[in-house]
Description:
The structure holds two protein chains of two kinds. By secondary structure, chain A is mostly helical. Chain A is built from ten helices and no strands. In chain B, a hairpin with a 2-residue loop joins strand 1 (4-13) and strand 2 (16-26). The radius of gyration of chain B is 24 Å and the shape is elongated. Chain A binds chain B through residues 6-9, 12, 15-16, 19, 80-82, 84-93, 234-238, 240-244, and chain B through 13, 16-20, 37-43, 46, 49, 51-53, 68, 70-74, 76-78, 80, 82, 84-86, 88-89, 97-98, 100-103, 140, 143-144, 205-206.
Amino acid sequence: MRGLLNGVVLRVTLRAAMSRKRAVLFALPAILLIGVAAVLKATAKGTAWPPDVLSILGYLLLALTALIVGGSVLGAEIDDGSILHLLATPVSRRTIVLSKYLAAVALTVAFVGIPLYVASAIAAGAASKLTIGLLVGALAGAVIYNAIFLMLTAVVSPGPALAIGLLYILLWEGLLASLVPGVGLLSADHYSLAIANSIAHSSALQPNLTVGTAVGLGIVVTAVCLALATICLSGFNVKGGEVA
Amino acid sequence: MTTIELRGVSRWYGNVVAVNGVTLTIGPGVTGLLGPNGAGKTTLMHMIAGFLVPSRGEITVAGRSTWRNPDMFRQLGVVPERDSVYSFLTGAEFVTASAKLHGLPAPDAAAGRAISMLEMTEAQHRKISTYSKGMRQRIKVAAALVHDPEVVLLDEPFNGMDPRQRLHMMDLLHVQGEQGRVIVFSSHILEEVERLSGIIQVIVGGRLAASGDFRAIRRLMTNRPHVFLVRSSDDRALGAALIGRPAVSAVELTAHGLQVRTSDYGTFTREIARISREAGLRLTQVQPSDESLESVFAYLLAS
Lengths: 244, 303
């Protein structure tokens, strides 16, 4: 990976993400997921709830966290201009994008993937197929969502990128993908569900595509998004210059 | 010899022209980019640094284009104007990170040297968020100089510095220039450029208004027509006395006093007291009324 990743960019990105005020939001998925799992485990009568509740809540929180994290690792620095300190170095733009992307994936896994695993372990057991399936689906989701949202901040400015990302999660994936089967072909949520279901084999996880298609499309979407982000950062035009 | 070359460089945003057909060559030494706020200095700096693509024209540093050429930053150090740094890092961490990003073999030692050069050793282990604006400027300069670049671009580097820090920074840049580096800094303050730079490029309204030796341009600035507001015990009588003098080109009686236009700044300021005394009048006010930098630039542009 030498040459593709830069340890300084990775560490600075992780510290920047954790130093922002919005970092307190990162604790919310863990509180919600583990709290809901513990409460339902203690109060719910049947055993059918974990796949439904954890896949819907867990993957929604995964998408929203990736939107905040993936959208800020590059977007926040473009917004405040500190990206210039990074761009004024000979580090290749591809390395900057990949290092920031890796930081975003790591943060998303830490703040949603692991809590989702813990919540599912409380609900269905640490080694259950559901728990392992949800974790692997979450890892795949973190990889794909962050590539999409990082690309959005590089292609359009960070503000609109956040709005577009939110529309994608709530409208495209939340509404259209469940109503129109073909829409699932372009849904990171459905890729995650298909991958999770290939291990969990739960009727509650209802992807609109096969695991093979999900993996193939997930790889293509991730690669295309990272390539686009690299192209945009290579031709980055700073804003905020004075105009006569 | 390392040079920065701009050939017919323009940059526009929609219908708004920020930089208009600038052609210039900047060689080793300290060069000041002087112009009022909004003149296009930052846009020009961004284009030279490769942070902004010119709409038209060509820019090279040491014969190579800076656009889409990150490798160029091995020779180039940039201090952006915006006061945005990684404030969660300490000063030492920030400069060391810059040294590592430039691939220096001994980043800690290089960072230590740059920090010491900027007199930031004492504060280096404090978080940048606790720094004053002047200290943030200095740590940005340390990060830009850490890899000992041949070309350094500094956009308004003296902003927020106190007079002592300003003098120290000027000395530092002066030494860097004397060592053969190409140092370009922008400023909207005439005195800063005057103290530091022998060569200036004056940018007004996105155009290169004047270029060359500072003393020649200063002379042009001094010899331009000046307007004074003069008040006395009898403005009408003083106006009559002044209009006959060769140094005075126009006199206008206004509600606020006499507006006197002179083509010879030195002679007028020496003679005005004597003329009023000879006319038996008492002077109460002699005030230059067009000393703003903008009026100086407007004159340079017109000439």
